[in-house]
Amino acid sequence: MEIDLIFLFEMVGTVAFAIAGALVGIMKKMDIFGIAMLGMITAVGGGVIRDLVLGRTPPVAFVHPVYAATAIVVAIIVFLPSVRTFAEHHQKGYYGIFRIMDAIGLGAFTVVGAEAAYSWLPAPNVFLAIFTGAVTGVGGGVLRDVLAGEVPYIFVKHFYACASILGAVAYCILRGLIANELAMILGVAVVVVLRLLAAHYRWTLPRP
Amino acid sequence: MEIDLIFLFEMVGTVAFAIAGALVGIMKKMDIFGIAMLGMITAVGGGVIRDLVLGRTPPVAFVHPVYAATAIVVAIIVFLPSVRTFAEHHQKGYYGIFRIMDAIGLGAFTVVGAEAAYSWLPAPNVFLAIFTGAVTGVGGGVLRDVLAGEVPYIFVKHFYACASILGAVAYCILRGLIANELAMILGVAVVVVLRLLAAHYRWTLPRP
Amino acid sequence: MEIDLIFLFEMVGTVAFAIAGALVGIMKKMDIFGIAMLGMITAVGGGVIRDLVLGRTPPVAFVHPVYAATAIVVAIIVFLPSVRTFAEHHQKGYYGIFRIMDAIGLGAFTVVGAEAAYSWLPAPNVFLAIFTGAVTGVGGGVLRDVLAGEVPYIFVKHFYACASILGAVAYCILRGLIANELAMILGVAVVVVLRLLAAHYRWTLPRP
Questions:
Q1: CB of A55 within 8 Å of any CB in chain C?
Q2: Does B67 contact chain A (CB < 8 Å)?
Q3: What ipTM was reported for this prediction?
Q4: How do residues C101-155 score in pLDDT, each as one tens digit?
Q5: Which residue does chain C place closest to A131, by CA atoms?
Q6: Which ranges constitute the DSSP H helices of chain B?
Q7: Domain coordinates in residue numbering, chain A
Q8: Do A131 and C68 touch (CB under 8 A)?
């Protein structure tokens, strides 16, 4: 049951990040192969980094084809002309959809990553779980941006990595107090809400 | 004997990717040290990623200096003025040589990477072997392009990662049917032929 | 006692690279969060790569929060307006400070990385120790530059990776001849002196 929720979160994150990655590829005028690659790397990248950090080799995404295959199928669907036309008309272009998908993927992978530290390591400290969660959450997006030739989002946008860290903190605190499933859902909610609020209200942080 | 063929393929890939990496460094006007570094990283990068993914640490390229040393020597030879002059006159500049070397390296490392999954892991599934092969094949070139400040080839050029994946698929199918050595040679051939045909005939894939 | 010196070098490298990373973030007009992230990644990146290469998972920086926490605090201090004003007035802008901090971090992490190969692996060859040292030394700076959207320093500036390699060579030779502590200090000195001399006298290497 608990395993199932983790798998569900992984798949939600995979689909969301595949969409976000494919949209970046579309905005960059890549061909369908580049778009599928970028969607897949965005979706599985954070988990691969997480597994390397935890010493879990080969990484899950290399053992179970379901993640990469799902991401590629999703990216190809996003590429379909009719889907693109729909997106352009219904969301002020792609950017609104990108932002929501990116927030969902960030939240899902953050919590899955923090949970993996607890389930994989014999006695992780809370810092390790938070750090692993944040790296899992932001890793796919950082790879996406670097590979697309952009300065990663986490360095230019307000509060992005901060939302991931705070969600990981929330999950790590709550999992000792309430059922793990509920702690996971609340952890994701913290990330998604903070990341979207920060973008919507353009929360700014001091600059030089 | 079989081990020897793998080593041969690794050295062919190392030399080819060192040349490809050095040529990118020359086109970017780097100094000889940058060129040697870029040649070496292109040559050993895919193998290092493969070993990290397979949990084979320290990676082979860190244990056996032959790969890095060969790549550095090759990159320095490519840098020599007389060699550069020759290249400029005989191949319409560097680009033709770059493409062939890149194709050979892509093919050799794809097959070596897929083979490593079978020889290193107790019971790999075929997806894992294909994925490991493709990551080994494209990894060096992706590092090269990111470090040189370019959007990686796999996202902008037709069919590049696809050639690697199809070559890995060919090798994984053939290795159960024919001698491993022959399967390896045919796997490399599939990658090289597809990648060069795609470049020559400018096979295009749909774009947004 | 020996462990303490290693920890001291790690902390010196962490502080120096956190300052160097934060200064790059300031020059890139990032907000305080991006600057803290970039400072932290610069500081812990080389060590994380070292640990992945050595198969030491989870990496030390994920297990002990002291490195990341120190780097973040240092980066925030660098960001403070009064500190920035001081830096601008006393060092011909940031660049002089950046260069010195980068040299110290490069030296400290190079030696710590080479030492880690000896202390972690049962029987490392000297090439492995040198290579691990150089990767640990330059890794944080390469991540910093790639994430900030720059071509990494090691490819454009004279002698940068070379200084790291020569420092690692010096340490590996000396550690068999003199006390390890002294070998470490001399190894760092070789890197710092070479890197600063190369920058000061603009030592140039051949270019195409």
A1: yes
A2: no
A3: 0.87
A4: 889 999 999 999 999 999 998 888 899 999 999 999 999 999 999 999 888 888 8
A5: C62
A6: 2-27, 32-54, 60-63, 66-79, 81-90, 95-120, 126-147, 153-156, 160-174, 180-200
A7: 2-200
A8: yes
